[in-house]
């Protein structure tokens, strides 16, 4: 189960139950391996040009550190699991400089959404440093909400309790709910 994207790939082929099966395996372990679970629910996308050269990449996975941090503050274990099957964080996205402004970045974002929505996820988010003045327009062009530095996302819909997803210092959160999307 530790392979990057292994569980996600099974879920694409066999539906959401594949994720629940792998979660059940983790649950049975006396020491749940969150890192391994997170990797198996991760997504690495690459874009290649006509010569096979990699010109863009995106990495996403469930926000394990954030969820474990919340667990340390009292979030129930069942909600830590829920977070792993409902929320994915875009950890990295980059397009080669000479391939930018031709739609590759937004295509990687779109495919990322398609994969996680198909696997039953509810929320995609990420963050970038506030001094990256051009990124809000990039994410908004893909229908993500972009928050100001002091703002967060209320995760009530996921957990049924008030949990706010906030940014790290100096960062801004961008996010998109599945229910707003096609
Ligand atoms: C941000 C990045 C991934 C965008 O990739 P891209 O392939 O150039 O983006 P797209 O061509 O899909 O752009 C889609 C839309 O976003 C907006 N956009 C993209 N780059 C923009 C820029 N530099 N300034 C303003 N708007 C921009 C535009 O609306 C664009 O649509 P348009 O070209 O029809 O006007 C790329 O610039 C990059 O790799 N930057 C460095 C790494 C980085 O900042 N990653 C994000 C970390 S959170």
TrEMBL record:
Residues 6-182 form the N-acetyltransferase domain. Transmembrane segments: none annotated. InterPro entries: Acyl_CoA_acyltransferase (IPR016181), GNAT_dom (IPR000182). Pfam families: Acetyltransf_1. PROSITE patterns: GNAT. This is GNAT family N-acetyltransferase.
């Amino acid at each position: 189960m530790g392979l990057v994207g292994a569980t996600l790939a099974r879920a694409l082929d066999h539906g959401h139950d594949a994720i629940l099966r792998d979660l059940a395996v983790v649950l049975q372990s006396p020491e749940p391996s969150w890192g391994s679970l997170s990797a198996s629910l991760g997504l690495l996308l690459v874009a290649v040009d006509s010569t096979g050269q990699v010109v863009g990449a995106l990495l996403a996975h469930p926000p394990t550190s954030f969820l474990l941090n919340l667990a340390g503050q009292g979030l129930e274990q069942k909600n830590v699991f829920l977070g792993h099957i409902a929320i994915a964080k875009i950890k990295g996205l980059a397009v080669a400089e000479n391939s930018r402004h031709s739609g590759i970045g937004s295509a990687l974002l779109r495919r990322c959404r398609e994969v996680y929505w198909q696997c039953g996820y509810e929320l995609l988010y990420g963050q970038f440093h506030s001094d990256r003045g051009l990124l809000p327009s990039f994410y908004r062009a893909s229908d993500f909400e972009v928050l100001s530095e002091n703002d967060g996302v209320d995760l009530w819909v996921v957990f049924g309790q008030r949990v706010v997803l906030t940014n790290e210092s100096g960062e801004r959160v961008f996010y998109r709910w599945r229910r707003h999307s096609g």
